[in-house]
C-alpha cells in the first residue's frame, strides 16, 4: 500500500475516532483500558517504512517503523547514547516490536490518563486530577496545565543528537518541534499526518555517549528521571561539543543548552561536570510530590556526564552541598 | 460484519483464523487455537506470561494485534522441545507455574542466541536478568531460573537425563511444556463467560439494577443493598465471550442513592467523617482480614474499631515508659512506623468455571487454596448433599492467602450457570485482581521500646492502626506478645474502616508489619546500647531454636565484616542488617490420605491443592522413600474433592498436616502387603484395588487448642527465623539494591530440601518487594486505586533478586508427628525489617516508612 493510500485510509479512520498503528505496543495497551477504540490503520504496510540508511555525508536516516531493538544494535558504534537509550527502555519483547516512530508519538503514562474512571485534558476533559492528586511520578518542571511527563525516551536521545523528523507532505522538522506544553496532546503532528523517518546529522568526530534512567528496580520501569549526554573530547580532555537532554521531568523532553554551554570549552573534570549538572536545577518548579526530582535531575545529568566523559564522580557527595 | 481471515503458521501447522484484526494475539492463540499454555496475565506487556516467538523473536502477545500474526510463523510453549525446559525443571525455576511458559519461550530463544554468539558458556547474572527483564514471577522462582538459564547455556541439559534425576517438582514437566491446565484454561462444551457489574460509587444504597431486556442478571449484593467501596460486586451477567460479557455488564444501569464516603484513613478519622458501619448488625457483618481466627468484640468510635489488646502487665509497661520520658532516658526509643497496602498479585487471576450436572450435582473448576472448604461452603449455600459438589483445582497459579473461601467469582459462576443452564466461567481481569481481591492491610504503628540499666527489655508499647478498607481484624501489635520474653508490654490493635475493598490474609498476616516496627526498633536500641544487634536479640530472646540461628548468623563472614553503622561517606554504601521472626504452628489435625493400588501404581488421594508450594512433590517423595518405589509407580491425585480430607493451603499448615498422614498410609499399606522392609514394588501387581486410609496422628502432648476451628489447630511451639541481609545503597540516585540474603529457618524436619528452599527464596523475594517497591496508590479525592495494573503496581523482577542462602536448623520438633512444621510464612516475616536495618547500617538514616522508595531514601539521607 502506498503512503497516499494509507493517509486516505487514515482520514477515514480518524473520522471514526481511529488512529494509526505502528508496532502497536502503546495503542494496544490503551485499547485495553478504553483509551483507544480504533479503527486502526497499520503503517507497516507502507514500503520503505523500515530500515536504516547510512548516507555519504555521514548522516543516517532511520525509517519510522524501524524497531527500537534494531536501533539499539545498529547504531551502537556511531551514536552510543542513542543506542544505549534504545537498549534500556521497556523490555526485550517490547523493543522487538516497538518502533522509533511509535516511541516518539506514544501517549503519556500518567495513571490518571490511563484510568477510565478519570477525565483529564489528555482524554478530552478540562482538568488535571493528578495535579491535586497523587503525582509522585509527575513533572518537576511545571509549565503545562497537564503534569504528565513525556514518555518518549527516544525523543530525549534524539534531541541530544539534533535529529530531525520527516513528516509526509512537509519539510523535515527538528524533533523538538514535535512537542509542546499543550496539555491535551503528547505530540504536535496534525491528525492524519504520518511520521516517515528520523534523520540524524553525522556524529561527533569522537562521539562519547551515555544514557541513564533513574528507577527503583533493576529493569523495566518508567524513568523517574532520564538523561542523555553526548560529548566530544579533544586529546587534552577538553570538551569541544556537547548534547545533553533529559526526560521524565517535564511535559516535553528537554534539551539543556545551559548545561552544554557550561561544558563546551572546559576541561572534562569533576568540578566542570558538577557545576554544569547543577545548572539543571534552575529550571525546576516542583509539585508538592515531586521535590525529590530536583536533586535526582541534577544527579542523573551528572551520572551521564561522568559516564560519557569517563571522569569518575563517585567519591564526593556534590549535588546538594552549596560549596 | 464478517471478520477477515488471517493465515498463521503455529508450531509448524498452518491455520486460517477468522478474527477481529485488532484483538490481542494472545486471545487468538488461546481461544481460537486452544493453545492455553500461553497465559494472559497483565495485558500491558509487563509480565511476559503471554510471550510467543514470532519468526523466532520473543514478543508480548497481549500487545500484539492479531493482524501482526498474518503470514508469520508462531512458536508457543507447546511447540518447543528445548533443553531450557528440562533445565528449568531440574533447577526448580518454577513454583505455581503460571509464568513458566513465558520464561520458557523467552529462555529458549535467549539460550540459542547466546550459544550461537558465545559458545557453550554461562552468561553472567546481569546478562540473564537483562534478557528476562520482561518477565515477572510472583512466587519468586527467579533463583532457580538464573541457574537453569546458565546451565542450559553451557549445554548441561542437551540430553534427556536418567530417571533418578527427575525434577524435584513432580509436575514440573507439565508446567514447562504448557500442558498443565489451570482454571483459566478450562473450556467446557457450551460454556459462557461471565462478567461482574461493579460499583461506580464508593458508598451508596443501590436503588435498582436494570439490565437490557432478555439479560439474565445475577444479584451479588448483600441484604442491606449497600455498596461500601468502588468496584464492589453488584451483579453478574454472562455472554458467549468475555469481551461480550464485559460489554453487557457495561450496559447494566445501576441507580445509586449516594452516601458520603471516607476513601482513606485520613478521611475516615477526620472530625465529622461519614460513619461506614453505623449500626451493630453492620459491624458484626464486616469481613475479617485475619487468618481464620475469630475476632473478639471490642468498642467502636466512628470508623475506628478497637483496641483489641494482647497486653501483658500493660500498666507496668506504661508506667516505666512514662518515667523514662520524665528523665529523658536515652534507652527509650519511640517512633512511628508505617507499611503500605501490599496486594497478593497472583499471576493466575481469581477464576471459577461452574457446571451443573444432569443429576443436580455441581462441579466447580476453581483457582483456590481451599478445595475442601469451598466444597463444604458451596454445598451449604446451594443446599446440596454430601458428594454433590466436586471442586477441581489441578494447578493453581498462586494464592498467597488471596484464594480462600467461597469467593465472589464462584458465586457468580454458579448462579449464572444455574440461570443459563450451561457451564459458566468467571475470570477476573488484572484491574479487578489488583483492586478488589484482597490485600495485606496497610499499617501505622507507634512503638515505644525501653531498655533498663542492664540493657534488658524493660517495656514495650505498640499501637497499630490497620488500613484494611471495610474489613476488620488487623492483628499486628498482638503479635508483639510472642517475641522477646515476658517483659511488660501494652499491645493494642485498631482498625480504621474506610470505603475501600476489604483486606484479607496475606502470607503471615500481620507479621511483616509487626517485624518492621519491632525489629527496626530493636536495631535502634542496639545502636543506642552500642551492642551487636544479634547479641542483643540473643539476650532478649529466650527461644532455644532461635539461639541456634543467632549463633549461625553471627558466624557468617558477612556479619563479621559488616560496616560500622553510618561510617561510610562515598556514593555507594554497603550495609548489613538482621531481623528475627517467629510464627505459630498451625495444622489441620483431621487430615487423612487414601492410598489405592491401581494397575500396579500406588495412587495417593487427598483434597489438598498445590498452589506452587510443592505438596504434590512432598507426597510423592514420602511414598517413594517409604515404599521403595520408582517414580512411575506413584501417582498423586490432589486438587479435587475426595473422601480424604485435606487442609486449606494457608497458615503454613499443608505439609505438616499431609505428610505425616502419607507416612501413616504407607505404613498401613506395608502392613496389608506384609512387606516389613524394602521395596513393595514386586507385590503391587497382585494387590490391585487394595485401599488404606492413613491419618495425621496427634502430636505428643496434643495442641494448644482443644479442638480444630475451621480445620485449624494451633500446635505447640513457635518456629523461628533469622534473616541477614546485605544491601548496596546508591546515595546519589536513591536506589537500594538487595545483594545477598541469608535465611536461617527453624521449622523442624524439612521434607524436601529443594522445594523448601524455593519456598524460602520466594518469601525473601516477596519481602524485597514489600521493602522496596510494592505500594497501592489511591487517588485521595475519589479513592480510585491508581495502581490497578502491573506497570504501576511494582513487584520484583529477576534483576531485583539477591543471591540467597538458606540454612535449615531441623532440631527441636520431636513432639510433632513427622518432626516438621510449615515455613512459607515464617520465611517472609523479617525480610523487610532486615533490609531496613541494612539501609540504616549503610547510611546512618533510619527508615520508618515502607517501601523505601528512591524519593524517601534521598529525602531521608539528606535531611
| Class by SSE composition of chain B | alpha+beta
Count of structural domains of chain A: 2
The span between the termini of chain A is: 62 Å
Structural domain tally of chain B: 6
Please mark out the parts of chain B with pLDDT under 50 across 5 or more consecutive residues, or reply none. Answer: none
Secondary-structure element order of chain A, N to C: HEHEEEHHHHHHEEEEEEEHHH
Approximate shape of chain A? globular
> Which CATH architecture of the largest domain in chain A is right?
2-Layer Sandwich
Global shape of chain B: globular
Low-confidence stretches of chain A: 318-323
* CATH fold title of the largest domain in chain B: Aldehyde Oxidoreductase, domain 4
Rg over C-alpha atoms of chain B, rounded to the nearest angstrom: 27 Å
- Total of DSSP H or I helical runs spanning 4+ residues of chain A: 11
Structural notes for this entry:
- The complex is a heterodimer of chains A (323) and B (863).
- Helices cover 29% and strands 17% of the residues of chain A.
- With 323 residues, chain A is α+β, with helices and mostly antiparallel strands.
- Chain A has two domains: 49-200, Uridine Diphospho-n-acetylenolpyruvylglucosamine Reductase, domain 3; 207-309, Enolase-like, domain 1 (2-Layer Sandwich).
- Chain A is globular.
- Chain A starts with a helix and ends in a 14-residue tail after the last helix.
- Chain B is an alpha+beta fold and 863 residues long.
- Helix content of chain B is 28%, strand content 22%.
- In chain B, strand 24, helix 18 (615-627) and strand 25 (634-637) form a beta-alpha-beta unit.
- In chain B, helix 2 packs across helix 3, helix 2 packs across helix 5 and helix 18 (615-627) packs parallel to helix 19 (654-673).
- The longest helix of chain B has 20 residues, at 654-673.
- Chain B is globular and about 80 Å long.
- The chains are: A alpha+beta (323), B alpha+beta (863).
- The interface between A and B is large, with 56 and 64 residues.
Amino acid at each position: 500500500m502506498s503512503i497516499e493510500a494509507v493517509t486516505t485510509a487514515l482520514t477515514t479512520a480518524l473520522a471514526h475516532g481511529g488512529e494509526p498503528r505502528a508496532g502497536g505496543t502503546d495503542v494496544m495497551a490503551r485499547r485495553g483500558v478504553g483509551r483507544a477504540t480504533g479503527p486502526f490503520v497499520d503503517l507497516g504496510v507502507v514500503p520503505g517504512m523500515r530500515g536504516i540508511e547510512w548516507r555519504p555525508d555521514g548522516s543516517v536516516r532511520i525509517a519510522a517503523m524501524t524497531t527500537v531493538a534494531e536501533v539499539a544494535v545498529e547504531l551502537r558504534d556511531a551514536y552510543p547514547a542513542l543506542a544505549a537509550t534504545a537498549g534500556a527502555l521497556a523490555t526485550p519483547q517490547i523493543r522487538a516490536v516497538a518502533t522509533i516512530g511509535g516511541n516518539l508519538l506514544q501517549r503519556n503514562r500518567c495513571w490518571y490518563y490511563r484510568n477510565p474512571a478519570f477525565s483529564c485534558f489528555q482524554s478530552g476533559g478540562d482538568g488535571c486530577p493528578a495535579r491535586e492528586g497523587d503525582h509522585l511520578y509527575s513533572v518537576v518542571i511545571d509549565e503545562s496545565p497537564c503534569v504528565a511527563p513525556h514518555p518518549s525516551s527516544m525523543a530525549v536521545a534524539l534531541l541530544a543528537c539534533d535529529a530531525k523528523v520527516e513528516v509526509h507532505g512537509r519539510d523535515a522538522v527538528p524533533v523538538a518541534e514535535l512537542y509542546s506544553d499543550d496539555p491535551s496532546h503528547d505530540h504536535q503532528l496534525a491528525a492524519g499526518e504520518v511520521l516517515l523517518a528520523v534523520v540524524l546529522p553525522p556524529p561527533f568526530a569522537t562521539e562519547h555517549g551515555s544514557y541513564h534512567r533513574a528507577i527503583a528496580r533493576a529493569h523495566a520501569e518508567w524513568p523517574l528521571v532520564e538523561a542523555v549526554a553526548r560529548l566530544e573530547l579533544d586529546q587534552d580532555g577538553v570538551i569541544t561539543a556537547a548534547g545533553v537532554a533529559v526526560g521524565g521531568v517535564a511535559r516535553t523532553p528537554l534539551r539543556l543548552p545551559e548545561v552544554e554551554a557550561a561544558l563546551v570549552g572546559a576541561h572534562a573534570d569533576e568540578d566542570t561536570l558538577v557545576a554544569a549538572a547543577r545548572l539543571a536545577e534552575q529550571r525546576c518548579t516542583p509539585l508538592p510530590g515531586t521535590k525529590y526530582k530536583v536533586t535526582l535531575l541534577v544527579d542523573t545529568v551528572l551520572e551521564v556526564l561522568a559516564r560519557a566523559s569517563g571522569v569518575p564522580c563517585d567519591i564526593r557527595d556534590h549535588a546538594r552541598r552549596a560549596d | 460484519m464478517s471478520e477477515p481471515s488471517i493465515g498463521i503458521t503455529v508450531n509448524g501447522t498452518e491455520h486460517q483464523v477468522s478474527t477481529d484484526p485488532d484483538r490481542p494475539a494472545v486471545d487468538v492463540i488461546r481461544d481460537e487455537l486452544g493453545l492455553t499454555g500461553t497465559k494472559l496475565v497483565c495485558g500491558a506487556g509487563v509480565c511476559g506470561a503471554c510471550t510467543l516467538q514470532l519468526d523466532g523473536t520473543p514478543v508480548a502477545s497481549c500487545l500484539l494485534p492479531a493482524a501482526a500474526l498474518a503470514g508469520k510463523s508462531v512458536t508457543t510453549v507447546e511447540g518447543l522441545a528445548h533443553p531450557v525446559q528440562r533445565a528449568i525443571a531440574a533447577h526448580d525455576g518454577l513454583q505455581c507455574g503460571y509464568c513458566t511458559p513465558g520464561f520458557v519461550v523467552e529462555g529458549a530463544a535467549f539460550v540459542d542466541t547466546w550459544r550461537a554468539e558465545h559458545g557453550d558458556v554461562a552468561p553472567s547474572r546481569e546478562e540473564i536478568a537483562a534478557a528476562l527483564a520482561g518477565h515477572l514471577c510472583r512466587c519468586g522462582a527467579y533463583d532457580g531460573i538464573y541457574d537453569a538459564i546458565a546451565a542450559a547455556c553451557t549445554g548441561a541439559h542437551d540430553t534427556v537425563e536418567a530417571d533418578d534425576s527427575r525434577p524435584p517438582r513432580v509436575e514440573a514437566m507439565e508446567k514447562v511444556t504448557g500442558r498443565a491446565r489451570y482454571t483459566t484454561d478450562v473450556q467446557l462444551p457450551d460454556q459462557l463467560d461471565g462478567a461482574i457489574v461493579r460499583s461506580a460509587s464508593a458508598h451508596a444504597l443501590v436503588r435498582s439494577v436494570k439490565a437490557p431486556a432478555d439479560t439474565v442478571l445475577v444479584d451479588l449484593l448483600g441484604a442491606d443493598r449497600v455498596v461500601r467501596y468502588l468496584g464492589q460486586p453488584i451483579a453478574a451477567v454472562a455472554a458467549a465471550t468475555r469481551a461480550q460479557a464485559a460489554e453487557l455488564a457495561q450496559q447494566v444501569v445501576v441507580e445509586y442513592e449516594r452516601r458520603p464516603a471516607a476513601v482513606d484513613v485520613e478521611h475516615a478519622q477526620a472530625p465529622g467523617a461519614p460513619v461506614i458501619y453505623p449500626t451493630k448488625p453492620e459491624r458484626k457483618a464486616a469481613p475479617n482480614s485475619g487468618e481464620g481466627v475469630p475476632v473478639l468484640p471490642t468498642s467502636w468510635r466512628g470508623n475506628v474499631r478497637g483496641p483489641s489488646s494482647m497486653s501483658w502487665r500493660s500498666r507496668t509497661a506504661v508506667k516505666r515508659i512514662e518515667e523514662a520520658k520524665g528523665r529523658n532516658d536515652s534507652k527509650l526509643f519511640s517512633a512511628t512506623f508505617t507499611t503500605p497496602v501490599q496486594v497478593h498479585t497472583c499471576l493466575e487471576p481469581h477464576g471459577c468455571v461452574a457446571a451443573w450436572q444432569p443429576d443436580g450435582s455441581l462441579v466447580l473448576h476453581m483457582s483456590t487454596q481451599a478445595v475442601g472448604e469451598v466444597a463444604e461452603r458451596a454445598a451449604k449455600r446451594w443446599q446440596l448433599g454430601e458428594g454433590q459438589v466436586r471442586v477441581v483445582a489441578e494447578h493453581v497459579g498462586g494464592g498467597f492467602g488471596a484464594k480462600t473461601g467461597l469467593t465472589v467469582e464462584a458465586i457468580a459462576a454458579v448462579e449464572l450457570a444455574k440461570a443459563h443452564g450451561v457451564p459458566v466461567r468467571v475470570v477476573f481481569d488484572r484491574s479487578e485482581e489488583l483492586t478488589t481481591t484482597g490485600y495485606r492491610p496497610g499499617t501505622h504503628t507507634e512503638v515505644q521500646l525501653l531498655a533498663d540499666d542492664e540493657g534488658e527489655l524493660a517495656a514495650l508499647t505498640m499501637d497499630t492502626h490497620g488500613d484494611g478498607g471495610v474489613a476488620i481484624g488487623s492483628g499486628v501489635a498482638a503479635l508483639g506478645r510472642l517475641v522477646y520474653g515476658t517483659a511488660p508490654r501494652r499491645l493494642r490493635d485498631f482498625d480504621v474502616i474506610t470505603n475501600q475493598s476489604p483486606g484479607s490474609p496475606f502470607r503471615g498476616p500481620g507479621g511483616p508489619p509487626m517485624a518492621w516496627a519491632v525489629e527496626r526498633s530493636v536495631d535502634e536500641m542496639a545502636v543506642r546500647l552500642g551492642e551487636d544487634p544479634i547479641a542483643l536479640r540473643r539476650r532478649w530472646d529466650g527461644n532455644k531454636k532461635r539461639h541456634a540461628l543467632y549463633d549461625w548468623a553471627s558466624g557468617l563472614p558477612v556479619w563479621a565484616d559488616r560496616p560500622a553503622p553510618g561510617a561510610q561517606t562515598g556514593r555507594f554504601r554497603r550495609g548489613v542488617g538482621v531481623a528475627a521472626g517467629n510464627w505459630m504452628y498451625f495444622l489441620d489435625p483431621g487430615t487423612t490420605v487414601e492410598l489405592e493400588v491401581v494397575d500396579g501404581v500406588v495412587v495417593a488421594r487427598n483434597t489438598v491443592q498445590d498452589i506452587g508450594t510443592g505438596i504434590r512433590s512432598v507426597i510423592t517423595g514420602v511414598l517413594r522413600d517409604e515404599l521403595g518405589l520408582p517414580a512411575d509407580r506413584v501417582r498423586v491425585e490432589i486438587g479435587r474433592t475426595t473422601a480424604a480430607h485435606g487442609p486449606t493451603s494457608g497458615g503454613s499448615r499443608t505439609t505438616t498436616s499431609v505428610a505425616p498422614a502419607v507416612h501413616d498410609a504407607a505404613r498401613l499399606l506395608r502392613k496389608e502387603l506384609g512387606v516389613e522392609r524394602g521395596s513393595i514394588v514386586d507385590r503391587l501387581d497382585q494387590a490391585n484395588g487394595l485401599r488404606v486410609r492413613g491419618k495425621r496422628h496427634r502430636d505428643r502432648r496434643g495442641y494448644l487448642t482443644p479442638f480444630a476451628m475451621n480445620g485449624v489447630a494451633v500446635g505447640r511451639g513457635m518456629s523461628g527465623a533469622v534473616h541477614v541481609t546485605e544491601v548496596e545503597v546508591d546515595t546519589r540516585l536513591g536506589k537500594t539494591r538487595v545483594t545477598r540474603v541469608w535465611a536461617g529457618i527453624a521449622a523442624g524436619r524439612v521434607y524436601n530440601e529443594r522445594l523448601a528452599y524455593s519456598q524460602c527464596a520466594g518469601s525473601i523475594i516477596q519481602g524485597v518487594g514489600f521493602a522496596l517497591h510494592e505500594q497501592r496508590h489511591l487517588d485521595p479525592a475519589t479513592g480510585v486505586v491508581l495502581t490497578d495494573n502491573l506497570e504501576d503496581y511494582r513487584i520484583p523482577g529477576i534483576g531485583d533478586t539477591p543471591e540467597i542462602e538458606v540454612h535449615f536448623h531441623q532440631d527441636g520438633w520431636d513432639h510433632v508427628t513427622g518432626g516438621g512444621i510449615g515455613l512459607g510464612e515464617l520465611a517472609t516475616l523479617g525480610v523487610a525489617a532486615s533490609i531496613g536495618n541494612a539501609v540504616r547500617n549503610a547510611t546512618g538514616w533510619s527508615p520508618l516508612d515502607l517501601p523505601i522508595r528512591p524519593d524517601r531514601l534521598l529525602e531521608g539521607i539528606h535531611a
